[in-house]
Amino acid sequence: MSKQAQQELVARRRKARHYALQALYQWHMAGATATDIEAEFRTDYDFSVVDLEYFQALIHGVPPLVEELDSLLEPLLDREIRELDPIERSLLRMGGFELRDRIDVPYRVVINESVALAKKFGAAESYKYINGVLDKLARQLRGPEVSAGR
Question: Where is 137: in which H helix or E strand?
Fold first, then answer.
């Protein structure tokens, strides 16, 4: 893959995560199905600049695994997951899904992208919390990768 193609993929995936966070937040708050939310987003937003396959993997992958993802995350939290802000909860679930099921994406990318989204959508200091929790989760789920990267 050329450098330009790689940069385009990174930008398309970043946009996919951006929309996926909003979609997962909407799923959490409104209870609509992932399919309905996807249809709404594809109507309302320009998906020519989005990695559609990645967006679909996130919004259709996280909801059925919420209980499993929460059980991975809860031991790493300083409070119950239901007490987290809905943006933080959605970000941690999405990041947890990527760390667990998308091993094609380096753990540092997952954490960095989650932190960037927390800075954009979360409370003032939430990015630090997201960073800390996902870093601990990465050590559990991707120990060899984390060790090799340090």
Answer: helix 126-141
Secondary structure (3-state) at 105: coil
Per-residue pLDDT tens over the stretch 34-92: 999 999 999 999 999 999 999 999 999 999 999 999 999 999 999 999 999 999 999 99
Residue 19 makes CB contacts below 8 A (sequence gap 6+) with 41, 45, 50, 55
What CATH number did the domain enclosing 91 receive?
1.10.940.10
Structurally, the chain folds into a number of domains equal to 1
8 Å CB contact between 98 and 145: no
44: left (phi over 0), alpha (psi -120 to 50) or beta: alpha
Residue-level pLDDT at 31 = 87
